[in-house]
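Predict structure. Chain length: 366.
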Amino acid sequence: MNRVTKTLLSLAAITALLAGLALAFQKPLATFVLKQVVQRIAGADIIPSLPDGLHLALCGTGAPFSDPTRAGPCSAVIAGDRLFIVDAGEGSARNLAYMGIPAARIEAIFLTHFHSDHIDGLPPFMLQRWGSALSLTPTPVYGPTGVDKVIDGFRAAYVLDFGYRIAHHSERIMPPGSSGGKGIPFALPAVGQGDQVVVLDDKGLKVTAFRVNHAPVEPAVGYRFDYKGRSIVISGDTAESSALVAAAKGADILLHEALQPKLLKLLELQFESQQHRQLPHVFRDILTYHTTPEQAAGQAKAAGVKQLVFNHIIPPIPFTFANAAFIGDAQQFYQGPITVGEDGMLFSLPAGSDSVSRKKIFLDRL
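Prediction complete.
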């Protein structure tokens, strides 16, 4: 037996021994590791560690398409130590927790419109706030005309669930008066009489809603957040919109939805080859009420924004290498920084500064 063979046999024996030890001690080792994860995640709250200013956390950058890397549309805006959510797509509440941002801190939720992919993640946010904050009031949910009907509908759907939880945990832990949400509608000016309305102006934070073009969806809005000289604009779903350009003037970040037709065409052709009756038609239809990356870049340039970030990504982009294909020719129309948004990204805009920093935060997932 030569030296190489002896070495390989020794390594195999050591590997087998280690595997046996790992199996023998699997339960205590797993418990130890889980304890470390729990200590890292449970009760995590990154907000006190952030500098005073505006912060944008992407808790969902996807669209109705199946995408294992992206939750439904959701953005968290932190102004000082105050937390607000814009849209609540499926899976976004979990992402918020993975980022170390507790739902108990939610002061209000803002909805851009009532397409299902922007509201189907609302109940987990409201449940987490109710069950972990001991709030005495339902979650305020602002939105254009009709938001009260949407929230009342969720309350009706979850009324039995509310009863189960109160009965199980007691009224002290789950106060009946704070379950669910409360819809707070606002009306935009009549067409031709302006496109903006201030929906919140409090403690140095101003939130302005503005009309966007998502016809036949009406009403549909975007939001601008202004705090201590910093500004973030969130487009919501829209085609090109002069009202958006006006509302986004000089903003630090424009978070804009984007659909890349050249990539969507690949899906259309594939489903046509399978003789699918509906989806190719749907893919052609949605071109009319979304914005291409190139069009969004033109909007960003016209508004003079400092950074452009894409969300509501259509079609799904399964790996970052494909980002260049998604962006297409956008940088011919806007020369500032362009980012294809990913779940877990955090943009920080400190007060008294022009800087914008970006990092990705996903704590270990239980």
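Summary: The chain has a mean pLDDT of 91.
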